[in-house]
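#lab-general

N.A. 3:47 PM
ok so I finally got the sequence cleaned up, no stray characters, all 417 residues accounted for. can someone with queue access submit it? mine expired

B.Y. 3:52 PM
send it over

N.A. 3:53 PM
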Amino acid sequence: MRFLEKPKPVVLLRLVGATALALLLLLLLSVVSGAARLAPPSSLSAQVTPIWLGNPVAAEDYSARHIWDLQTWQGRIYLGYGDWDINKGPVRIWYYTPTASVFFSETVYVSETRPAAMVDEEAIDRYVIIDDDLYIPGTDPISTNSWDWGNFYHNDGAGWVKHRTIPLGIHAFDLASYGGELFVAIGPNGGPALLRSDDGGLTWTPAISEVEPAVYLNRFYELYELEGTLFAVKSPTETLRRPSVYSYSYQYSGFVTTTIDLVPDQPGDLVYVRDDVFVFGDSILYVPWARETVTSCPGPISALYQAHIWQDGQRVAFFDGKYPRDVVVAGEWVYVLDAGGARCIVGEGLPNPAGYTATVYASTDLTSWVPVATAHFADTPSALEVLDGFAYVGTYNGDIYALPLRHIYLPFIFRGE
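B.Y. 4:20 PM
back already:
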């Protein structure tokens, strides 16, 4: 099989002049003054000037430029974007390399006749790292792909390969490895919505016995492992207007229901946990979404939730009234992007004319939070990643920015050393 050739740079931006000098001086200040006692965090400004890195998806329609995910892998930052509500696609794989300040594109091996294709989906909603390999669940295949099979894409370091093997999997939302097997959470065109594979995704068998008859409601959005147990999160239904949590049981060789309620304080609207669930220590963190009907526009609830294993979810009080949009776990730190304003998940309507003042908060215990970067954006900040002392933020317009993180450059402020 042929894989992608050496990628060619398509966008180039280097940090030069006053910006680079300012960052260098800030880093030197950190090194020189690290041992000294510095002022408490409340007296220091987290305000930074965002460094615009580029917009490799600028040629797409506005709704297809929305950045849904940023994922680091092998020193790169991959971009998830697109619009599977209005059926855009195929989409190109883009990533940014901070060491070279360049955006690259990659192709996918599909077959001998299509050795260098784009992703045959209407969007890339997320990337998933499994055993150091990078995966793309096939969110919504383009119209030339039938609904008989769904897709996932795999990069083991040698290049991207498309696998069209998921039976009836018209929407693949998440992938996970557990007990030596690969699991996928899907929205199928009939049939079970949780599948398992013992051969790396070549073939699949059901991992749950129940099947919800309504296609829109027969969806599992999330898979996560917490303290040795694999969990799956199901969409709300007409009778249960909140997400259901299932756990994998070796006794029953499949997923079974639990009594866990991830959003016990959210009555009324249909509530979803459909973005990434983030594992931090012995807890999960997540931002629920809500909408009135299965066809109305979902928007994030202005709250961040936390749940321990087998326990119901509860709000992280610090974020009540804020607008959390994304979470990053990096070592002992967890980072949360407060978008600075509300926006529908599919970005209906125009952005706030005044823009959005967003803040990245950091914590090591989920109790004490400090602002480590605050910046103003013209459009909604929607995705966050952290790498080598910088926060990377993607917006609904497709722009990618870098923000220096304050606690990285002043390392002793928040650690009490």
